[in-house]
Structure formats: structure tokens, C-alpha cells
Design a protein that fits this description.
Strand order of the largest sheet: 5-4-1-8-9-10-11-12-13
Order of helices and strands: HEEEHEHEEEHEHEHEHHEEEHHH
Largest sheet: 9 strands, mixed
Oligomer: single chain
Number of strands: 13
Radius of gyration: 19 Å
Shape: globular
């Protein structure tokens, strides 16, 4: 059941001029990787034991862009894929989902990245990546669509694009353009340890841009990793180790339990709804997309705890609906699906 302090205003979220969602929102530009996920047709088996795989478009920044669009927002994606069948397919999927893909680039020599994902019986994931190098690692600063970045109300990114050159320098340049243009910087570290040279490199790379972000979304496991196994549920740990002076909003996702939030003025927790998880791929990205969709149309959201809690519950529902399907992008909910669920849980 929804939190009573939230439930009274959720049914009319999409219609409220001053609420967390408006009919027309501003542009969110998502930067980073887009790839093909191969998911076993049978859960709870190893890659070697899987009888077959289903291909699904993925990549955290691209997932967020599609989620925002499916929720009725405005989004664009900037990244690089191979000039191959998979790359063209991914560009078409963005277009089909009304995501501006004009910032995509195609590499003639490197292939589109692939990821094979094993699913436990509970829908949790393990990854095996094929990118040596893949096209997303090779985006150059000269290939950036600068005008598109300057239009962003929110510029969103992860950490995978910080691992290798030339993409790392391109990522930093894009952040600088966005910041100078007045964009809100949104960061989801999205830790994928197998892609980093070492744990120390991952920790250092993720934290290298930490203090530049206005909004950060992080998981409990990532808190433990970044703080050296400190208790991720301890507010003092989170505030002292991870909340930097320029941060407007820190979100800590707790899977099916919901989300904690921290601002300079207040902190709290918002529960999620109960669903049967099939595949958790894309859940965090759906949550992020839900929050950013709300924030893009209400830039002062983090200053009003009531409206922020409404937005977080909205995002929790987005994530919950995503885990009931298979694959990242294919399972992302539409605005209508979220509103129907909100109506049910707040009735």
C-alpha cells in the first residue's frame, strides 16, 4: 500500500501544473553506452547451461532515455555503436521510442557492444561483456553534438564511459559543455566491476567526477563498494562519505524495498510496491528515468519534500513494473501503465 502522505495526490500527477509530472517536459540528454543484452530463455542457469538467448536492447543511459520518452518526457541519447546490424537496430529502437538519436555516431571498424546476462531464479543478474574494444569506447570529442548537449535541461551519464580513452575525455568534455550551459548534471555510477582494470581503478574512476554532479543515484551495494564496506544503511556514512557540498539530491535505491533520499534540508525513505520479479535488468534505469522525467518539468523538486516523495514513489512504480518483464528497454513502462498502477495502489 502506498504511503498515506503520498497517495492522496498521485492519481492526478500527470495533470497537475505544479506537480511532479507535467504534460510537456524539458529535454534530458543521456550520454554513454548502448548495447545488446543476450538474456537466457531459462532463469537460474549458467551461461553454458542456457539452452538459448533472447536479444534485447540495453545500456543504462539508453534505458533511461527510452524510459523518459515512454513516460511522456523529452529525451535524447549521445553515444557510439558499430556500423553493423546491431548498431543500426539500436538506433532504430531509439527512434521508434521517440528518443532523439541525432547524437549517435557509427564506428566503421569496431562492433556494437554485447553483454550476456545470466539470471538467477530471483531475477538477479551476472554479466559477461564482449567489448575489446567496442564502438561505445571510441567516441571522440570531435564527434559530440554540442548543440544538442547545450539544449539539455538535465545531462545524465554513468561511469562505464569513464573507463577507457578516448571516451573518457569525451565524457568529461560533454559534462563541461552541459555544466556551462546551465544543465543539471545527473550521475548513476552503475558499477560493472568486470569492465574495470581493478577494484581500485573502479573506485577511483567513479569518484573522479563525483563532486561535479547535482543529482546522484546509487545502490546499497555501490555504497559499500565506494566507502570500503561501510554500512550502506547508516545515514551518517552516506552523508559524511558521499554527500558533497554541491549535491542537490542523493538517491539510494534499495531494490524491492524502495528508496532513501537525502538533500541539504531533509532526508527520508519511500516504499515501493510488491510485484513478482522476472528480470531486474533495467529496474534502476527505470527508477532514474522516472525521477528525471519529473525533475525535468519541475526543477525545484528537490526543495519540496512532499513533491519529492511523490516523484520518488512514481519512480519506484516505474522500477517495479520493469522487473515484471524480460530485458531492459522492452520492459520499461509507459506513462499509462504507471498511472493505472498508481490508481490501483492509491485507491
Amino acid at each position: 500500500m502506498a504511503d498515506e502522505s503520498i497517495s492522496g495526490n498521485l492519481k492526478d500527477l500527470s495533470l497537475s501544473r505544479n506537480g511532479v509530472v507535467s504534460k510537456k517536459s524539458h529535454l534530458v540528454v543521456c550520454f554513454g553506452e548502448m548495447l545488446i543484452d543476450f538474456i537466457p530463455t531459462v532463469a537460474g542457469v549458467s551461461l553454458a547451461e542456457a539452452p538459448a538467448f533472447e536479444k534485447a536492447p540495453g545500456g543504462a543511459p539508453a534505458n533511461v532515455a527510452v524510459c523518459i520518452s515512454k513516460l511522456g518526457g523529452s529525451s535524447a541519447f549521445i553515444g557510439k555503436v558499430g556500423d553493423d546490424e546491431f548498431g543500426r537496430m539500436l538506433a532504430d529502437i531509439l527512434k521508434q521510442n521517440n528518443v532523439d538519436n541525432s547524437g549517435m555516431r557509427f564506428d566503421h571498424d569496431a562492433r556494437t557492444a554485447l553483454a550476456f546476462i545470466t539470471l538467477t531464479a530471483e531475477g538477479e543478474r551476472e554479466f559477461v561483456f564482449f567489448r575489446n574494444p567496442s564502438a561505445d569506447m571510441l567516441l571522440r570529442e570531435s564527434e559530440l553534438d554540442v548543440d544538442l548537449i547545450k539544449k539539455a535541461t538535465i545531462f545524465h551519464y554513468g561511469s562505464i564511459s569513464l573507463i577507457d580513452e578516448p571516451c573518457r575525455s569525451t565524457h568529461l568534455a560533454a559534462m563541461d559543455i552541459a555544466k556551462r550551459s546551465g544543465s543539471i548534471l545527473s550521475y548513476d555510477p552503475n558499477l560493472r566491476l568486470p569492465l574495470w582494470p581493478s577494484e581500485d581503478a573502479a573506485r577511483s574512476g567513479i569518484m573522479s567526477v563525483w563532486n561535479l554532479a547535482d543529482i546522484i543515484k546509487i545502490s546499497e551495494d555501490e555504497i559499500s563498494f565506494l566507502t570500503g564496506a561501510d554500512d550502506p544503511n547508516d545515514d551518517e556514512v552516506v552523508l559524511k562519505r558521499l554527500f558533497h557540498p554541491n549535491l542537490k539530491l542523493l538517491l539510494v535505491t534499495e531494490g524491492s524495498a524502495g528508496c532513501r533520499y537525502y538533500t541539504k534540508k531533509f532526508k527520508g525513505r519511500v516504499n515501493s510496491i510488491k510485484v513478482k520479479a522476472v528480470d531486474t535488468t533495467g529496474a534502476g534505469d527505470a527508477f532514474t528515468g522516472g525521477v528525471l522525467k519529473c525533475l525535468a518539468s519541475d526543477a525545484s523538486l528537490y526543495q519540496d519534500e512532499k513533491r519529492l516523495r511523490e516523484a520518488i514513489f512514481f519512480a519506484n512504480v516505474c522500477a517495479a513494473l520493469t522487473v515484471t518483464g524480460r530485458g531492459g528497454i522492452p520492459s520499461l513502462p509507459t506513462q499509462d501503465a504507471v498511472q493505472r498502477t498508481l490508481a490501483e495502489v492509491t485507491a
